[in-house]
Write a structure and sequence with these properties.
The chain has about 425 residues and is α+β, with helices and mostly antiparallel strands. It folds into 2 domains: about 240 residues, Nucleotidyltransferase, domain 5 (2-Layer Sandwich), CATH 3.30.420.10; about 140 residues, Serine Threonine Protein Phosphatase 5, Tetratricopeptide repeat (Alpha Horseshoe). It has 17 helices and 9 strands. The strands form 2 sheets. It has a 7-stranded mixed sheet, with helices on both faces. A two-stranded antiparallel sheet has the order 3-4. A hairpin with a 2-residue loop joins strand 3 and strand 4. Helix 7 packs across helix 11, helix 13 packs antiparallel against helix 14 and helix 16 runs antiparallel to helix 17. The longest helix has about 30 residues. The relative contact order is 0.09.
Amino acid sequence: MTAMDIKSYLREIDGLTTGTELRKKKRVYDDECRRGLHEIDRVVDGTVVKSRKGTLFVKETRFPLDHGHGDAVLGSALSLPASAISVAANSPELGEFDLGAAMYLDTETTGLAGGTGTYAFLIGFGMFEEGGFVVRQLFMRDYHEEEAMLHHFAEHVKNASAAVSFNGKTFDIPLLQTRFITARLRSKLADLPHFDLLHAVRRLWKERIGDCSLGNVEALVLGVTREGDVPSSQIPQLYFDYVRSRDARPLARVFYHNCQDVLSLVGLAQLACNAVSGYEDERDIDPADLYSLGKLYFKQKRFEESLFCAGRALEMSPARQVLRRCAYIRAYSLKRLHRWDEAESAWRLLLQDFPDEIVPRIELAKHYEHRTRDLDRARLLCDEIAGIVQTAASQDADRVVGSTKPELEHRLDRIRRKMARDDRM
């Protein structure tokens, strides 16, 4: 095959072009970008807004209250009690939190490290307004539009009485506050009561799902499947490419991603509140979730609730690790409720399933020494603990002995003195 034949053959292959044709296409593309044919207002349905601080691009999307997002319905957030939010957030300060008056906030940034060199180029936030839920997305088309975007955002913050985010306490809020300070603008954002869903998600579902990233939580808890999304890790580079080329077409997926994040905040807030308020009637709840909820209630010293959750989970014959943890929650809850006989039974049941455990023996030894005055059984348990410690593997023995040996020796000495005193009597 001659050189001319090869050239003709290559031209016939679909999709192959010559260098001259490529350069021509590049000139046409550059000209289109210079004339703004691929600018954000041509790609995304929104408006260029002018103010005394400059211009920015704003997209508004209204959703009806009956709009479904995964397993949640947006309007259901309006009827959730603040007490449930306080429990899910593990924060008594949120006892009057109003999801209906909150701002649901998510940002897209030029980096994930934060700091003064990181910009929030897209601020997405949703609020309930006039029988619907409105998502606003404020976009700076170049760095000089940041002040106008922040000023526009600050005006909307004035209408919110609270904030909901996913990892906003650590990332979004500090980043925006830094940008406000840099721009010499004021905002009450950092002063709003804040429900950070990342921490609630970890408390309620980490035991079951492990990875608590928003995408994983959406799929495994909220039941959301995204189509046409873009990975978060790619978003900063897409913005840099846009600033350089003025081709906003790839950013349409970023706006979609951001809007879905905001909607998921509403859905997850509902599910978190429902988890802590509707567990008594839920028949198909996972035992791992019941354990997580029982642990949360125990931390809040709501021992009747923690006892109920642990008991329900144990009735479901959970996996061995969950069974062990629920058994501990149940026994400690009974102890805190001063239901001593039931607590004794709970510790003994735990030893039946986990015969090498030390903590139940310590708790039973305390019970027999101080409450039932059965010093023989208390001493016997202490001797069993000493035997377990001595036969444990060295790497575990160091940990076990470090936490129990002083207490064990002190308890044994005290029991022997009591027994000797009783013998003299």
